[in-house]
Design a protein that fits this description.
Elements (H helix, E strand, L loop, with lengths): L1 H21 L3 H7 L1 H33 L5 H10 L3 H10 L3 H11 L5 H19 L3 H32 L6 H55 L3
Length: 231
């Protein structure tokens, strides 16, 4: 009985050791994939770093652009109504925001037809939107390209696995083939992870940018309404 228990314990120990041997870390999966897998994972890592840098840089820039004093337009209204255009321009110059720059552009055109003022504000607004969306399109490119790059790595891995099977005359070990295949699949997983992160970051920035654009449009309308008020 004692001998049987010892045999069972030894068998359980062997099974545990075998299960531990089959456990691979992410690093081992990448390294075991060969030079092609390492290159593709490295490219995806660079794309992830670029995407994260652009996301946070644009996020902070957009947040800074959306900050504006709630009394800004009231002060502009008081200065313009009283004819203090220089004071209104000074206030706009001291406020570093797209809304202030659009308002300053409109103030500098006071005295000209409203159509010309509106056109100048629209042109300035287009420039401000371009500044807000700087490099954001790169995130969209990464979101689309990363999964395809990862899938490319998987296809290359599968080709190499089947090439090994073909050159071995059908005598290739299934264990080595399966190991090569699931290692190749890691590039697809990595590509999807990078693509998802870039896609979420891109859409979040688009939403934030739209809010700033709506804020700019609302303040531009308020400024034009101010000019239309009877003296």
């Amino acid at each position: 009985m004692l001998l049987l228990q010892s045999v069972n314990d030894a068998a359980n120990t062997d099974e545990a050791a075998e299960s531990l041997e089959k456990t691979l870390s992410i690093y081992e999966l990448v390294i075991n994939g060969g030079i092609g897998s390492i290159i593709i994972i490295s490219v995806l890592f660079v794309l992830l770093a670029v995407a994260l840098y652009i996301y946070f840089e644009r996020l902070f820039a957009i947040k800074a652009a959306s900050r504006i004093d709630k009394n800004f337009m009231n002060q502009i209204r008081d200065n313009v109504s009283s004819g203090k255009l220089d004071a209104a321009k000074m206030l706009c110059a001291q406020t570093d925001s797209p809304v202030a720059r659009l308002t300053e552009k409109g103030i500098s055109r006071i005295g000209k037809p409203l159509e010309d003022i509106n056109k100048a504000i629209e042109n300035a607004g287009t420039l401000e939107v371009y500044k807000l969306e700087k490099n954001v399109s790169i995130l969209a490119t990464v979101a689309g390209a990363a999964p395809m790059i990862g899938f490319l790595g998987t296809v290359i891995g599968m080709i190499l696995a089947f090439h090994e099977m073909a050159t071995s005359g059908g005598q290739a070990e299934m264990g080595s083939l399966a190991g090569g295949i699931y290692t190749a699949m890691t590039t697809t997983v990595a590509g999807l992870i990078v693509g998802i992160i870039a896609y979420i970051g891109y859409n979040h920035l688009v939403v934030k940018t739209d809010k700033v654009v709506h804020q700019m449009e609302a303040n531009a309308v308020d400024f034009l309404d101010l000019l239309n008020e009877p003296v």
